[in-house]
């Protein structure tokens, strides 16, 4: 039986997913090294997704992790569009509505950008309070 090669689209998607997961692992290590408590990861709901949910002291931090191989076209941090922000805010609202413990906390939205390849040379940037729910 002949072998069918995977399409380049499928393999590039798989590579992008692996790099995204590796960037999230880097972000978790970066946050925990700075005393931040990670309480959940990859929270999915109908409206969106939260990559990392943390406690920074008493503050609830919703973290979006973005990875880009280079800084061209604005890089990782600039890739969080208004549409993506709305999805993150919707997911955060879902978390607040379903968790009594978390609903009483003040919340901020952060972005962690990983520029470069997670498995190679890279730089991590953390923008606290990167955008607001409006």
Number of domains: 1
**CATH C-level category:** Alpha Beta
Largest sheet: 5 strands, mixed
Strand residues, percent: 35-45%
Q: Give me the secondary-structure category.
A: alpha+beta
Instruction: Please give the count of helices.
Output: 2
Whole-Å distance between the termini?
Answer: 57 Å
pLDDT averaged over residues: 87
Stated plainly, the CATH topology is called Trna Endonuclease, Chain: A, domain 1
Taking all Cα atoms into account, the compactness measure Rg is: 16 Å
Placed side by side, the strands forming the largest sheet appear as: 1-2-3-4-5
CATH architecture: 3-Layer(aba) Sandwich
Question: What's the SSE pattern?
Answer: HEEEHEE
Q: What percent of the residues sit in helical stretches (DSSP H or I)?
A: 25-40%
Shape verdict: globular
Low-confidence stretches: none
Number of strand segments: 5
How would you describe this structure to a colleague?
By secondary structure, the protein is of the alpha+beta class. It has a single domain (8-131), classed as 3-Layer(aba) Sandwich (Trna Endonuclease, Chain: A, domain 1), CATH 3.40.1350. It has two helices and five strands. It has a five-stranded mixed beta sheet with strand order 1-2-3-4-5. The longest helix is centred in the first third of the chain and has 26 residues, at 8-33. The mean pLDDT is 87.
């Amino acid at each position: 039986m002949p072998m069918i090669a995977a399409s380049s689209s499928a393999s590039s998607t798989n590579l992008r997913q692996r790099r995204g997961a590796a960037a999230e692992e880097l972000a978790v290590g970066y946050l925990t090294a700075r005393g931040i408590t990670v309480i959940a990861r990859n929270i999915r709901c109908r409206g969106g997704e939260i990559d990392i949910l943390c406690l920074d002291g008493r503050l609830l931090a919703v973290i979006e992790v973005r990875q880009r191989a280079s800084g061209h076209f604005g890089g990782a941090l600039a890739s969080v569009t208004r549409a993506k922000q709305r999805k993150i805010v919707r997911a955060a609202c879902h978390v607040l509505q379903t968790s009594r413990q978390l609903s009483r906390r003040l919340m901020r939205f952060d972005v962690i950008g990983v520029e470069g390849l997670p498995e190679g040379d890279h730089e991590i940037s953390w923008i606290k309070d990167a955008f607001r729910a409006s």
